[in-house]
Every structure is written in structure tokens, then in C-alpha cells.
Write the C-alpha cells for this entry.
Amino acid sequence: MSKEKIPSTPAILALKAKKAVFTLHSYQYEDRGGTRVSSARLGADEHIMIKTLVMEDETAKPLIILMHGDKEVSTKALARVLGVKSITPCKPETAHKHTGYMVGGTSPFGTRKPLTVYMEKTIADLPEIFINAGSRGLLAKMSTSELVRILNPREVSVAI
């Protein structure tokens, strides 16, 4: 990487505190570009770009769901798995309140409030992933085993 200034985000601090093995990768962020843009700019398969999505149930209880970049979350399937009536994405300002991160820069590491983390189970089959490091245009590349070790996510099968 060039000598650009890498921000010290709560996610990076949390990863360092857990002695995580990861590398940081920055790219030119594009509003609403999502994993399509990050995968193209970093030359990686969109399937290993992991989205961090903040959702809530009908009682407004928040949660994080990690999903492949090239897949979507079936909120109906997730609600069924969790035994709740409904799951909906949080509004950007609500997600920010829960995590401390701006949408487009949401990381599952170092969230403002402790949130239950769910993960699409096929993510565990990947040898390595890219996941947001707490700032728009900044991803952490790590082994999936590191992700699981640090977050201990509950595996679900809700991809569409």
C-alpha cells in the first residue's frame, strides 16, 4: 500500500486487541457501490467480500448478519430461524446508533453495543474473506477461522 493514512477505527482496535491476523486493503469508496465495487477495485471475487448488515426484529432488537457479497439475505428465512415474526434492515441512522459505524463502513468488530452476530454458514467454507474494517473504503482481509474465533457467530442458512 502507498503511504496513505489508515484510520484507526474501533474495528481495527478490536481486531488488534484480539491479536487477529489480518491485512488492511483500501479502495476508492463509491456511494451505493457495495461489494460489486470493492471486489472490482481489489481484484477479488465478490463472493468472498462479506457484507455486514444490521437488522432488527419486530421488537426493534438489533442483530448483525454476515452475508456473501454476491448474495442477499432472506429476511423471512432469518425470522423463521430466529423464531420471530419479522426481520427488517435497520434504517441507516438506527444502524449507526447501534454500531457506531456509517452505512457502507459497518464492521462487525468493535460495535458500540454488543450485538448478536449471525453468519451465512457457507462463509465458513471460504479460506479467506474481506470484511469491513470500520470505514468506508477500508477492508480487512483475514482467514475465515479468525473471523469465527473473534466473533463466534451463529451459523444460519438464509442466502438467496
Remarks:
- The chain is about 25% helix and 30% strand.
- The longest strand covers residues 49-57.
